[in-house]
Amino acid sequence: MVNQTAQNIPPAAPAPKSRHGCLTALLIIIIILNAIAIIGIALAAASKSLLGLDITLPAWSIATNIIFAVLAIFFAVGLFMWKKWGFWGLVVVEAVIVAINISGGNYLSIISAIVSIGLLYGVLQIGGANKGWTQLE
Question: Where are the domains of the chain?
């Protein structure tokens, strides 16, 4: 015979996840900077075409940078929701942007990508009990 009280006990709720302030701030900065980049790229492309200025980047590059900035926002939101794919998505976005910028002759983007992904990974590793990396699903 099964104990009736054991059947009526709901399973324990998982402990709430908590992120430290540095991780929260960095994710907010990633979202804000990519939103600014989207607006800036779109405005720069529009003003150059309206003014008849020579655009040095091909149109596909401008569109691709906008698409990947939107993706970066999407993956940062994924990290806010504790999804590990958010981190790996940001790594892929950085790699593609580096490839695009290298094709345009911008080799400094390699340093920027390494620093930004390294900073994100480092911030995910700090925080003691609020360590972000171990809480990602």
Answer: 20-135
Read off the amino acid at residue 49. S
For 108, left (φ over 0), alpha (ψ -120 to 50), or beta?
A: alpha
CA distance 2 to 21: 47
Quick check: 9 and 47 in contact, CB under 8 A?
no
Token reading at 48: 């150059």
User: DSSP character for 81?
Assistant: T
Element of type H or E holding 115: helix 109-125
Give residue 8's identity as a one-letter amino acid code: N
Q: How far is residue 20's CA from residue 82's CA, in Å, rounded to a whole number?
A: 13
9-61 per-position pLDDT tens digit: 777 667 777 778 889 999 999 999 999 999 988 887 777 655 555 556 677 77
Query: Mind giving me the DSSP string for 52-95?
Result: TPPPSS-HHHHHHHHHHHHHHHHHHHHHHTT-HHHHHHHHHHHH
